[in-house]
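pasting for ref
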Amino acid sequence: MARPGSSAAVLLVLMGFLSSVDADSLLSAPLNVTIRELEVNSAVVTWEILEGDPVIGFAITQQKKDVRMLRFIQEVNTTTRSCALWDLDEDTEYIVHVQSISMVGSSPPSQPVLFRTPKESEKMASKSPDEVMMEEYGAAAQLRAGELIIIVVVLVMWAGVIALFCRQYDIIKDNEPNNNKDKAKNSSECSTPEHPQGGLLRSNV
């Protein structure tokens, strides 16, 4: 019969082994979660992980502030440390959490990051005059290029129509002398040399 002291020792060793396994398999929460490239309808979230963590993917929870609806994004078999957030509403506050994923589970969520998307008017106002001028110049260049292509296509079509008309005109002009010769030949066959009107006069006896 086993003594109570030895049973307690075995139980303590087993609990210590299990706790060490759990400690080895537990991932640390992602660090330095940051929102970058913030636009009216999109943003990019980036993060870092502790060196040595066996991370194979990530999971992101995106939520509008004061709204229970969540968007869950999960990727595995990747070493990327960033993710694009899309289809956002302008002038809206969002909360983002990031978790690391390993072969044995997920890490605790990172510290929540709160950000607000800008308004369209604010985004336009934040652009420098040079950026606005470059965008306008690019749009004008695209418009001019499109107009130039249309003009070239129309000119080519008109040139083709004129060339086809000239060709048909030359063919008709070349056929006119042959038609006149055929008409003259037909009229000469229908009359005699003595009487061009085509008949012999009978004298009354």
